[in-house]
């Protein structure tokens, strides 16, 4: 993706957020203008067209964007770019690809109603976090009656922080409602939003590497043995298949020798990765679901049983612990 398009994306993102901040300050009843929405759709088309020609440059874009001054312009721009690419890689229909990009661009406009003193804090108290969480409702109310935005674009603003275990917001949907009430494309935007949040540096805090972020997200896949989870396995599988090699510079996020847990509850060691289906490697199972060590380890190919998948990756630097920080899925971005 060209530097020219990066700069254009940044300028439009800044323009939108500045416009919304002025709206909240001076004319609370107004919404995003027709011209801004038209520019957003044109920009998303440019992103999907250009990135379709050059996969290798995509990760470099995310790296460059981290160096810009304002974190929130930066974040929205990154989400818009990656969401546009994801929709294209998953062969969504043109109108849905466009909606993911536009929705990604404006998904956090509710932040425009929050003081910069709160947004720039590294740590929030409970009251401040409640204010930040309300950005989904505020953003949605701002666009709810805008006839120029599609319904799915509006709902992206409202629902992109919902999580499968009921700990998301604004509604705190449980697993069943998360699957039935949050459309797949919005759940994918939630994954993009999480990935960008995890990899972007924040005030007083370094971001994860792409590999670390992907491994974190795998550890937050729902499976029956878990009490803490955030995402559906099919959504994470789609995200990784479409973007994993692009955002991780062509490298696997797991490697032979990694200790993993399968959704069946069994523990094993990865023997061989599968490029097309990275959550379905060959695994040497060393413990059963009851955590009993097998006398004779068994090698299984998870690709032959597609319903089974890696659902946890153990941190090599710890003993029997997963590298998971649950609060990071509910951070202020």
Structure commentary:
- This protein has 333 residues and is an alpha+beta fold.
- The protein folds into two domains: 3-159, Hypothetical protein af1432 (Orthogonal Bundle); 210-333, no CATH class.
- Helix content is 49%, strand content 9%.
- The chain has 13 helices and five strands.
- Helix 1 crosses helix 4.
- The protein is globular and about 70 Å long.
- It starts with a helix and ends in a 20-residue tail after the last strand.
- Mean pLDDT is 85; it is low at 65-69 and 318-332.
List keywords for this structure.
single chain, 5-stranded antiparallel sheet, 333 residues, alpha+beta, Hypothetical protein af1432
User: How many β-strand runs?
Assistant: 5
Q: How many independent structural domains?
A: 2
Whole-angstrom Rg:
20 Å
CATH topology of the largest domain: Hypothetical protein af1432
Unreliable segments (pLDDT under 50, ≥5 consecutive)?
65-69, 318-332
Query: CATH architecture of the largest domain, please?
Result: Orthogonal Bundle
As a percent range, the share of helical residues equals 40-55%
What's the structural blueprint in terms of helices and strands?
Layout: H1 3-26, H2 34-53, H3 58-65, H4 71-89, H5 94-106, H6 116-119, H7 126-133, H8 135-143, H9 151-159, H10 175-181, H11 184-199, H12 210-219, H13 233-247, E1 259-262, E2 267-272, E3 282-287, E4 293-301, E5 310-313
Antiparallel strand pairs: 1-2, 1-5, 2-3, 3-4
């Amino acid at each position: 993706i060209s530097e020219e398009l990066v700069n254009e994306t940044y300028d439009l993102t800044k323009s939108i957020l500045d416009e919304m901040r002025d709206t909240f300050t001076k004319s609370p009843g107004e919404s995003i203008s027709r011209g801004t929405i038209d520019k957003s759709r044109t920009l998303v088309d440019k992103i999907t067209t250009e990135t379709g020609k050059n996969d290798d440059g995509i990760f470099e874009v995310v790296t460059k964007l981290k160096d810009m001054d304002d974190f929130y312009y930066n974040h929205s721009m990154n989400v818009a770019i990656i969401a546009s690419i994801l929709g294209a890689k998953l062969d969504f229909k043109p109108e849905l690809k466009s909606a993911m990009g536009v929705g990604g661009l404006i998904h956090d406009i509710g932040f425009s109603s929050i003081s910069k003193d709160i947004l720039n804090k590294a740590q929030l108290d409970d009251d401040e976090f409640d204010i930040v969480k309300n950005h989904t409702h505020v953003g949605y109310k701002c666009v709810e009656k805008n006839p120029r935005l599609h319904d799915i674009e509006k709902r992206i603003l409202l629902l992109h922080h919902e999580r499968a275990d009921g700990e998301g917001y604004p509604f705190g949907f449980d697993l069943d409602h998360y699957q039935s009430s949050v459309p797949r494309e919005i759940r994918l935007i939630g994954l993009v939003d999480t990935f960008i949040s995890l990899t972007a540096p924040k005030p007083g805090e370094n971001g994860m590497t792409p590999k670390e972020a992907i491994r974190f997200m795998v550890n937050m896949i729902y499976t029956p043995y878990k009490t803490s989870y955030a995402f559906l396995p099919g959504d994470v599988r789609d995200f990784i298949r479409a973007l994993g090699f692009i955002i991780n510079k062509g490298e696997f996020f797991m490697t032979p020798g990694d200790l993993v847990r399968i959704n069946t509850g069994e523990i094993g060691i990865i023997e061989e990765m599968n490029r097309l289906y990275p959550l379905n490697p060959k695994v040497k199972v060393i413990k059963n679901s009851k955590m009993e060590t097998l006398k004779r380890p068994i090698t299984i190919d998870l690709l032959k049983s597609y319903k089974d998948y890696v659902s946890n990756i153990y941190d090599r630097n710890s003993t029997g612990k997963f590298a998971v920080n649950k609060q990071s899925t509910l951070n202020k971005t």
